[in-house]
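Sequence in, structure out.
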Amino acid sequence: MKKLALHWQILIALILGVVIGVWLPEHVKYVSWMGDLFMRALKMVIIPLILTSIISGIVNIGSLEKLGKIGLKTITYYIATSVFAIVTGLFMVNLLKPGVGADLGFVSEVEGLALAKESFGQTLINIIPTNVIQAMAENKMLSVIFFAILVGFFITSISKKHKKLYIKIFNGGFELMMKITEFVIKFTPFGVFGIVAFQVAQQNDLTEVAGRLGIYMIAVILALIVHSCITLPLILKFIGKINPFSHIKAMSVPLLTAFSTSSSSATLPLTMEAVEHKAGASNKITSFVLPLGATINMDGTALYECIAAIFIAQAYGIDLSFGEQIIVVITALLASIGAAGIPMAGLVMITVILSAVNLPLEGVGLILAVDRILDMFRTAVNVWSDSCGTVVIAKSEGERLSYNHK
């Protein structure tokens, strides 16, 4: 008998959680532990996943010399488009305010609810940890990300003998953490069941909850549409001098695959094949830019994480200041770089942003139910951005693209 796909398992778990929460609220205590266990498992993998993924991504670029002009263009493009995506998400979530006014049944005393009232400058200073191990133990995500970036950068400048060893260690560590994360994600249906049952049992108005989740989904999807159908095509047209319609036609197979699998890493071979053989970019550009993009360029994920974090803050009745929203933008950018190219990796990385502005990690339970659906959209946007960047950089290097749609 064929195994039920994960998204169907999650949908069934969601329905069962609602049923238990509505009709058997007194029995929720017997299943809510599954949600608690799932949240603990997510917290368990986040620090090692961030460390290994960021370090591995940086060391795989190669030597500092190899980065050169193409590397600078690539990183500039990826950072710029990710920032555009996050700002689009920030605008949409502040415009639609999907969490404002929603009584989602949270108790008033939730651990970690209070925001630390630090100045923006002090927050930036605190990014540099005085004790890295302590920063990891206390889940100070910005400090951990900063340290990981430093380690990855300086591994590329040490002696060749030791560099090879460290590359093997961190690549192996990243692969290991991806396997563990995939294992944890398999238990998502149980986590959804426990969390949803508990949350629904606290609700007074399920229609309001459904309505607010619907607006949340609309906010994410609209922002993704704006970024993928306006921002990126404008970059193609005016910076790359490329016809966006020709490019999307050439990219149809990898985009559909990305949407179906929710994995930019699994789609990478198809993306490379399409950009090289259907768009006409050289192997030199394609083999450097696309693998790097699959590691650090997550426009859709960054946009989603920004909206999700502010939605959770709104649901808890917390009004994030401009400075705190800037922290969300910066952390979403860094967290998207650390997000693995596997299904639902953004779900793990959202906890980075919540920790950065001291929002309760339990708020992830609000978005679990619709995460898989949104994952399909944001993964397609991730792959679309990677491909756009590759052809724009190829054109900037003087290459003549010849779109072939056969």
